[in-house]
Amino acid sequence: MPHPRSVVVLVIDRLGAGYLGPYGNTWLETPAFNRLAATSFLCEQMLSNAPELATVYQAYWLANGKSLPQLAKDAGCRAILVTDDEQVAQFPTAQDFDELHFVKPPANSSDIGKPAAEVEETAFAALIETASSLFSDSSEPRLIWIHARAMNGVWDAPLELRQQFGDEEDPTPAEIVRPPEEKIEGHADPDYLLSLAHAYAGQVSAVDSVLQAFLAAIDELPNADEILFAVTSPRGYPLGEHQRIGACDSALFGELLHIPCFLRFPHGEGALARTQELIQPADIAATIADVAKWTTDSNLQSRSLLRLVRGEPTILRELIVAEAPHQKLIRTTAWQLRISQNEAGEHYELFAKPDDRWEANDVASRCGDIITGLIEHATQPNNSDLPNELTSPWR
């Protein structure tokens, strides 16, 4: 396969995998994401390595200590960053891009404002409009990295997009524009949680609508078949699961860490294929650098996800770790262990995977040997060749 002429990466902050049709959601229509999945290689089990954006971006932009935008420039690609998030624009590696386009939110998109009247007036639409304008001259190879605050910014989707999900007896969707953040004490009001879920779903619908137009614009380019296009998210958005709403205390559960990843390789390679392998953000950098032929680093090349598509030798993980202050998550294909620190010491929560998708049944009290094994192997520099009881979902 010839290397791609250009690379486009779209990062949509706080987009949880559980709200997309290709990841099993049945009540929220996401036609653009469905269409993208039909032409992409989809990572079923991609988990973020941390809830902090700076930590995730180190994985995105540093490939074995080398800057991804610098690798692109060294290979003759113009590196362009487009974002509406000041934090991303100020990351040190952002200075390695040739161009930085910072998009200010529309006037109506403030945390004290009102939802937009039309999808085209949302902050996400404004960002994508700027990004789309950069394709007007497609003769020069480019890396275009787009980071959208999306659900981590204002919730400015039109109200009708929030209202489409409820039945007559359901509560009115929340009309908030500021993303909610709360740790729930005691029993959560299900009507309150449902109103937030419908408001969040409205945001996802708005993103999907804008993505539909963006996909069409990319497909109309003369060199569309030569573009590597990736869509992912650095973290999800808890909506009452495990007593958390929003960023809150960044508790490491699936609703925060399970994120989507679509990789549309040039010339349709890998289309409609899926993988259940454990994937993390660093794999995106390795895949881009390999597919675009920006590196001869054998370690990076061996971690390329394109090799999964081709059935070539690939370094696969049997165990991954995510970390946040005072807590750690250890995950294999069969188990997920959350270790949290409190005044009494370490607290363990263990869930059987993939059966317990929503992590509702804590079996830590009955599986001490599994906990011990996971902790032991997570501290080893090479955590491959795990024993069967730690990796087999059939146990």
H and E string? EHEHEEHEHEHEHEHEEHEEEHHHEEEEHH
Largest beta-sheet details: 9 strands, mixed
Question: Can you identify the CATH class of the largest domain?
Answer: Alpha Beta
Radius of gyration: 21 Å
- Amino-to-carboxy terminus distance: 40 Å
Mean pLDDT: 93
Q: Examine the coordinates and then state which fold CATH places here, giving the name of the CATH topology of the largest domain.
A: Alkaline Phosphatase, subunit A
Q: Quote the beta fraction.
A: 15-25%
What does this structure look like?
- This protein is an alpha/beta fold.
- The chain has 2 domains: 6-310, Alkaline Phosphatase, subunit A (3-Layer(aba) Sandwich), CATH 3.40.720; 320-391, Arylsulfatase, C-terminal domain.
- It contains 13 helices and 17 strands.
- The longest helix has 30 residues, at 190-219.
- The relative contact order is 0.17.
- The mean pLDDT is 93.
Features:
395 residues; alpha/beta; Alkaline Phosphatase, subunit A; Arylsulfatase, C-terminal domain; 2 domains; nine-stranded mixed β-sheet; 13 helices; 29% helix; globular
Topology:
Blueprint: E1 6-12, H1 31-38, E2 41-47, H2 53-61, E3 62-63, E4 66-67, H3 68-74, E5 78-83, H4 86-89, E6 99-102, H5 123-133, E7 142-148, H6 159-163, E8 182-183, H7 190-219, E9 227-232, E10 244-245, H8 254-257, E11 258-259, E12 261-264, E13 274-279, H9 282-291, H10 298-302, H11 306-310, E14 320-324, E15 327-331, E16 335-342, E17 345-352, H12 368-378, H13 388-391
Parallel strand pairs: 1-7, 1-9, 2-13, 5-6, 5-7
Antiparallel strand pairs: 2-11, 2-12, 3-4, 8-10, 9-12, 14-15, 15-16, 16-17
